[in-house]
Amino acid sequence: MSKPILLSGVKPTARVHIGNYFGAMKQFVDLQGEYQNFNFIADYHALNQMMDDPTIIKKYTLELAAAYLVVGLDPKKTVLFRQSDVPEVTELNWIFNSLITPSYLQSAHAYKDAVAKKKEVNMGLFCYPVLMAADILIYNSDVVPVGKDQQQHVEIACDLARKFNNTYGEEVFKLPKALIWEGESLKGTDGEKMSKSKGNVIELFEPEESIKKKVMSIKTDSKGVEDKKDPEADNVFFYHKLFSAHTIDELRSRYENGGIGYKESKEILFANMMAYLKPMRDKYFKLIKDEKYLNKVLADGAKRARKVAQIKMEKVRRAVGVR
Ligand code: TRP
């Protein structure tokens, strides 16, 4: 029996941060044996929010590919590729356009949010869920791990799959399931949800000095060294749970009994964080210079992804009558 297919896309619009790592990337690595992973870099999705700088999409795409590799995605197991290397996806997007109405797309969150924020909405953003449906359905995806904000998009993909199958009387598309990540979302240095737009992220590969500054500026209350502290209410301790697992009991008791100040706690955290990240950071700084290798990995991935997409599109073209 072949493994169920897990598909995930990430837009190359920002550098990866520890929230991306613990919230998503680490799970992809852990799930590599159980699923056939398709991890792609959604460069066409990035276009609708950054048309103005062609160099940056390319740069972030390679950075993301390197990041995936150094955290442990194995290109022999995982199909790692660039969305735009599989043109069948945009072809399918076109066919789906005829199965969907503007009024239906007007109810999509991403569009409504953009309108509410009075952003200028281009057709790329408006049709974003259709392209995403094509991404999902063309590879026969079984599960699509996403954050809550993307759940609706997976439902739209299911609607499109059903609509297509009903219209053409064939089970061409499989209905995917959203896999919603459990657990609390990662806190940023200000204690709010970690998010690039809030400016509270710690990037995986930013300079050590800059990480130190951010760690030392994590928001805390103003309790003194000897005061008893509730570890669960402290943002620094939140990170200790991720990076200081080996001494977490000792830290917890020093918090609860008093005797550790936030400055010391942050210094310990910084040291543990750097120790944790060092192996992947060392690999990353080497790999990111090897553009040739990164492009080769993406090209190999694209070849494998495209094979699946081409078979699907043959069926689709026949079903709709253009062949
Ligand atoms: N929309 C996703 C995001 O903003 C990225 C994405 C594009 C995606 N296509 C996808 C995610 C297909 C999962 C499956 O994060």
Fill in the keyword field for this structure.
Rossmann fold, two-stranded parallel ribbon, 323 residues, Tyrosyl-Transfer RNA Synthetase, 5 strands, binds tryptophan, three-stranded parallel β-sheet, 2 domains, mainly alpha, 14 helices
- Give the terminus-to-terminus CA distance: 32 Å
CATH topology of the largest domain: Rossmann fold
Helix/strand-derived category reads mainly alpha
**Largest sheet at a glance?**
3 strands, parallel
Strand order of the largest sheet: 1-2-3
Domains, number: 2
CATH superfamily of the largest domain: HUPs
Contiguous helical run count: 14
CATH architecture of the largest domain: 3-Layer(aba) Sandwich
- Total number of strands: 5
Proportion of helical residues: 40-55%
Which segments are poorly predicted (pLDDT under 50) over 5 or more consecutive residues?
A: none
CATH class placement of the largest domain: Alpha Beta
What is bound: which ligands?
A: tryptophan
Alpha carbon gyration radius: 22 Å
Oligomer state of the chains in this structure: single chain
Question: If you had to describe this structure to a student in words, what would you say it looks like?
Answer:
The protein has 14 helices and five strands. By secondary structure, it is mainly α. The chain has two domains: 212 residues, Rossmann fold (3-Layer(aba) Sandwich); 80 residues, Tyrosyl-Transfer RNA Synthetase. The strands form two sheets. A three-stranded parallel sheet has the order 1-2-3. Strand 4, helix 9 and strand 5 form a beta-alpha-beta unit. Helix 3 packs across helix 13. The chain binds tryptophan (TRP). The site of tryptophan has 13 residues, from strand 1, helix 8 and strand 4.
